Amino acid sequence: MDPRAARQSWPTALYRPGQKPPDDDDLAATTTPEERLDMMWDLVEQSWAMAGQPIPDYERSSIPSRVIRPSR
C-alpha cells in the first residue's frame, strides 16, 4: 500500500494554540511515567527502523545541538 494512502486513515486531531485536548486523552491518569517512556521508546525504535538508520549511540556531552539565545 502507498504510504500516503495509509496515512489518510490515521486518526488525527487538530488543536489550535491555547486549546487543550479532552481530559480523556491524558495518559497521566491511567499510566505511570515509566509506561509512557516505554511507549515513546517503541515510537523511537519504529521511527529509526522506518528511516533505515541505526539509533544514534553517543555520550550525552556529544549530542549534536546548538543553543539559540533570545536577542536583546
Low-confidence stretches: none
The main sheet comes to: none
The count of β-strands is: 0
Order of helices and strands: HH
Number of DSSP helices?
Answer: 2
Radius of gyration: 18 Å
State mean pLDDT (0 to 100 scale). 86
Tell me what portion of residues adopts beta-strand conformation.
Answer: under 5%
Summarize the model shown.
The chain has helices at residues 3-7, 33-51.
Task: Tell me about this structure.
With 72 residues, the chain is an all-alpha fold. It is built from 2 helices and no strands. The radius of gyration is 18 Å and the shape is extended. The chain starts with a helix and ends in a 21-residue tail after the last helix. The model has no long low-confidence stretch (mean pLDDT 86).
List the helices and strands and how they pair.
Elements lengths: L2 H5 L25 H19 L21
List key phrases describing it.
72 residues; mainly alpha; single chain
